Amino acid sequence: MADIKPTVTTKASTHAQPKKSSNAISWIAPVACIILGYIIWRFVFGSPNNFEKPDLNGWFWPDHHKLKPNTGIAKMYEGGIVVPILIGSFFIVITFVIERFLTIQKATGAGNIGEFLRKVQYHLANKDVDKAIAECDKQKGSVGNVMKSGLRTYKDMISDTELSTDQKLLNIQKSIEESTALELPMLEKNLVFLSTLASVATLLGLLGTVLGMIKSFSALGEDSGGSTAAAELSKGISEALFNTALGIGTSAVAIIMYNVFTTRIDAITFGIDESGFTLSQSFASLYK
Questions:
Q1: What CA–CA distance (Å, rounded) separates 114 from 271?
Q2: Alpha-carbon distance 242 to 86, whole Å?
Q3: What is the pLDDT of residues 70-98, one digit of tens each?
Q4: pLDDT tens digit string along 117-135?
Q5: Which residue from 179, 188, 194, 224 could staple onto 146, CB 3.0 to 4.6 Å apart?
Q6: What are the backbone dihedrals phi and psi of residue 51, each rounded to the nearest 5 degrees, phi first?
Q7: Backbone angles phi, psi at 77, to 5 degrees
């Protein structure tokens, strides 16, 4: 009976190690930002010093309306209770913009990704895997991590005498895929906050504006003061529009930064895909 060569690739071992990272910021930051937004709205915008005749009885939401604010910043207080939520939303966007920037900057690594791949290709063409791994250590990014994991398997497969070339290629590709599966979630984590607030902030701004206008028109209906009533209506509408301005501003920042980050992630993903292609083509051509 003819011997059948086993196809189980037990000698291939992944060099990718799972990354343990806490994502406490995903629930701590939103709560802290909303609280901070309320504190700024209540104690900075709504400070008694900003009004000629402030309401000293209220605590959570003093009734400073129609009490002649002394400063322009006090008018934002009169925008209503939706304003602190919008301020908090803006701080949430800023928090995750900073967090994603630092994370993606680290994942990008040192130097140009294209130049890094060319150096690795050069060393592989000279059959110097150790120097290629050294380049990965210098790169220090996600592309370098994935490439390094694949290169270690690549090096193991060179000395393997039991597996066929196709099986060795499968092992290299598997190592790349496993390492990629560990890197990509880290890049995309928390972007959902930016994509969500990009639309929700505008809706919150419109909600605050509508609530403010409802209150203004209700007051107009109860007042028959003619030009005085019209002036109060105009004032109420201008105060309500602060909600729209905050919502649109927050949404604009979220959309711009979300697109910036996804573009950078796409560049890293392309580099990772190129890494897998480079290793497969190199091994197939040099170690048939």
A1: 7
A2: 10
A3: 777 788 888 888 999 999 999 999 999 99
A4: 999 999 999 999 999 999 9
A5: 179
A6: -130, 145
A7: -65, -40
Q: Is residue 11 part of a domain?
A: no
User: Which pLDDT score, from 0 to 100, does residue 21 have?
Assistant: 54
The residue type of 282 is S
The domain tally of the chain equals 1
> Is residue 189 in some structural domain?
yes
Say whether pLDDT at 3 is over 50: no
| Local structure of 69: helix, strand or coil | strand
For residue 110, being part of any structural domain is answered with yes
- What's the pTM? 0.84
Is 245 inside any structural domain?
A: yes
For the chain, what is the radius of gyration of the CA atoms?
Answer: 30
β partners of residue 30: none
- Structural domain range at position 238: 25-286
Quick check: 48 and 59 in contact, CB under 8 A?
Answer: no
